[in-house]
């Protein structure tokens, strides 16, 4: 910040309101989710990465292999692009999902 000329009172920059800070945080989170989705689409060319028996082929859901409640983050290493039926299938069949690496346990990361 430039120095205040002599004889002028020092003025603090206005603090952002809580609402504005919240909006900026939301915008930043949206931007990071868009970047993640773009990276996943480049990695698998829009195809479902699970390919279970019920697969439709087109990846439209971002699945966290390491659940967010277990420390999973919105990074490509923790996520897979899935079609809707595969996403439902892997959560309905956790034993198979863990066996195939579709779901990860916190200890294995």
Description of the molecule:
The chain contains three helices and two strands, in the order H-E-E-H-H. With 109 residues, the protein is mainly alpha-helical. The radius of gyration is 22 Å and the shape is elongated.
Radius of gyration: 22 Å
How would you write the strand order of the largest sheet? 1-2
Terminal residue distance: 44 Å
Query: Into how many domains do the coordinates divide?
Result: 1
Tell me the number of helical segments per DSSP (H or I, 4 or more residues long). 3
Q: Which consecutive residue ranges, at least 5 long each, have pLDDT under 50? A: none
Oligomer: single chain
Question: What portion of the residues fall into strands of 2 or more residues?
Answer: 5-15%
Number of strands: 2
Main beta sheet strand tally, sense and closure = 2 strands, antiparallel
Specify the overall morphology. Answer: elongated
Topology as a string of helices (H) and strands (E): HEEHH
Mean pLDDT: 85
Short description:
Helix content is 39%, strand content 7%. With 109 residues, it is mostly helical.
């Amino acid at each position: 910040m430039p120095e205040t000329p002599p004889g002028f009172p020092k003025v603090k920059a206005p603090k952002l309101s809580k609402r504005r800070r919240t909006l900026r945080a939301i915008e930043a989170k949206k931007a990071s989710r868009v970047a993640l989705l773009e990276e996943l689409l480049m990695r698998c060319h829009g195809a479902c990465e699970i390919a279970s028996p019920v697969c439709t082929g087109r990846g439209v859901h971002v699945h966290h292999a390491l659940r967010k409640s277990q420390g999973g983050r919105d990074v490509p290493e923790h996520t897979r692009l899935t079609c809707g039926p595969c996403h439902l299938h892997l959560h309905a069949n956790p034993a198979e999902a863990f066996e195939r690496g579709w779901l990860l346990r916190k200890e294995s990361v």
